[in-house]
Amino acid sequence: MKNNNITNKKSLIYMAIIANLSASSLTYAAEEVTEEKATNAVERIQVTARRKTETILEIPMAISSISAMEIADRNYTQAEDLYRTLAGAAMPGDELILRGLSGGNSDSPGTTATFVDDIPFEFTNLSDIERVEVLRGPQGTLYGSNAIGGTVRIITKKPKLDEFELFGSMVAGGEKDVAGYDSNMSLGINVPLMDDTLALRINGNLEHDQKQYVNMNTGVQSDEDNSFVRSQLLWQISDGIDFTLGYSNIKSAARGKTQGDRSQPEYYYDYALTDNPDAFHGYDVDIFTVDCPQGVERPECRMGTAPIALNGVPKKFQIWEAMDPWSEEETDLLTLNFNVDNLFEMASLAYAGSYRKVENASLHDWTRLDGVDMFQTWIINDWPTERTTHELRLQNFDTVSPLAWTLGVFYDRSEQNNVPNYQVQYHAGDDISLSVFEQWNETGEDMAAYGQNLFGNRQEHWQSSVIDSWDEELSFFADVSYVFDLGNAGDLEVNGGIRNYHISDNEITSSLGLWGTSNDELGGKESGNRYKFSLSYRPTNDLSAYALYSEGYRPGGNNAPLTGACLTDPTAGDYTERYESDQVQNYELGVKGLAFDNRFNYAVAIYQINWTDMLTDVYMDECGFSYTANGGSAKTQGIEFESTMQLTDDLTMTLNFSQTDSEILEDNDAIGAKKGDDMTMVPESNAYLAFDQGFSIMGKQAFVRADYTYYGEYKTHFDVKEEDIVPAYGYVNLSTRLEATEDVTISFHINNLLDDEAIKYKRSRSRSDSTIAQQYITYLQGRSISVRLDYTFF
Description:
The protein is mainly beta. The chain is 8% helix and 55% strand. The strands form nine sheets. It has a 24-stranded mixed β-sheet that branches. A hairpin with a 2-residue loop joins strand 26 and strand 27 (543-554). It is globular, with a radius of gyration of 28 Å. Mean pLDDT is 90; it is low at 1-39.
């Protein structure tokens, strides 16, 4: 499964290419670069990971911080783009997995939390942001649930009271072998409304993403459109008191498949009809199979029945499906941030609250699984949600005191009420489709009459409803540190934290139709404490060493009741109505520092994480549904290294790498895991190397950047099959930037410069050799070229 020698040789070749590109750029540098621009020192980066402003060196945990300038230089429009450059990060899909905490067969395990301006919000568009902070390891004390692998903090740019701004960016580009173009456009304005008192900042973004995959049956090429408008009104009541009221509207619309399919079916199902006036719909149906040529993939085998077959689509991007899925989501988010710097000369106060309403609708095509492609059947999901969050924090007022403390309370409630069409399954309503449907499912009755009588719709055969559903969490947290002055020996900081949480939930649901009828009420409560303790020794301002123990959790909850079609599934015996919170304990040692006259900034951490009652998704092969279970215990350990080196006044090198070893500690038959198995989705190693060179062209400041990203081999499923193994891969990016004027920057970007074909994700949906099961696959983006324009006008 591995060929490390070839992989290592290829990595060295790529690194040599980058070094050569960087060395070449030196010839353009430097005499014309102004003395004012030149500096040998690496910037001391400030962050607010502990809810107060500190340098990364002072904080006893592993943190990465990426600035707005660096994000623009790399042409990142979504946070997912930058996650792939981080040490210890995995990105098999669109979700960040840190330190090997995946826990199952899903590429979206939900082990990393995201906060936008201190609001828990899974929104990662990078338009008009100040910086992104990535906190590694469990953050259960300050950031609560779902942060067992780490926390991402996205800090947006705030309204300015004394400055009018008009700003924006435009990006256009395309990918080799993919028809169509990608685009991203942003426009923003900052308007002072009252001198030093009131200001408004509005930012909007439109993004179109042309996907790789084409349905050779319908002719649809997958794509996605996203948009948002974010407005923030800042009221500076006095020097130490401010309110920021925010409103955001976020929309997303996608169609088509986001993963490819390289399955090679041995046959497919077909049918023959015989007229029968006594049958429900006038036909008797004879079902049979048609053999596919050996080694032929699904689109090629089915092309004879395809109404549309596009030419010029690479084979790897071809899929064949009866229908094209779609999804639409709209979020209205209201936020309020309130800060009082001086509360009775005892403390500062900060409040962050939000209310959001989410409308989420989608179509899932089940023709392949429930209809074996002989008749169309699909599910429409309608998932409206309302969510309210509040967090109130008190912190010490004297910021120069050796004693620092934070006390806070957090409340979160999500609810769904009276959703009769939460999930509804339909089938095609013509006489032929109905005849085949009834024969395949052996219903023994007229399904058109069944649907009309039960639902008032002859094409409907199953409905799931939510009558009332809510879950809430109330937490109290505290964090205290004290810095001991050791004189010439430096400083020693002792830090401790605790979070006391209370979780409760209740769900009343009903289902009706072909897959079973039920009326259920489920609920439960849970509470607990999570702790943190650290020692940090700083002998000088340029060096720190720390030891950290921290805990995290994901809240328990309820599973949906099993439908009748799932009762005989082999994994049904592991189903429980309720699962409990899981727990992680993180043991970490780290060193951070500046060296070589502050030209070299580095951070290294080693850790071990023990994971108990691991939450994992269990896929039920026979019926296509999933449930959540406590999947036993696991352990992950590794080392992370991140650094920045100012090689010359105008040449900077970034080097990040990690080694991760994560394994299951006990058998789990429900997910096919055995004791000693490596965790899924997690490469044993990853690395990122980049060179940034500044130079001058005709008196204009310019930069060139070359970077190389490497991911080691990993698997995506326990009970592993050959099609579940992702080979190691690496790719090179190249970009240039020219500061055309004080207000306008133009940049040119080539991703995957060498056009290496690589796979990010692949997995067999079924453990059996089913002729209808997908062989999922996602390819790394091929060579992509884009042009970016950033502008700011005052």
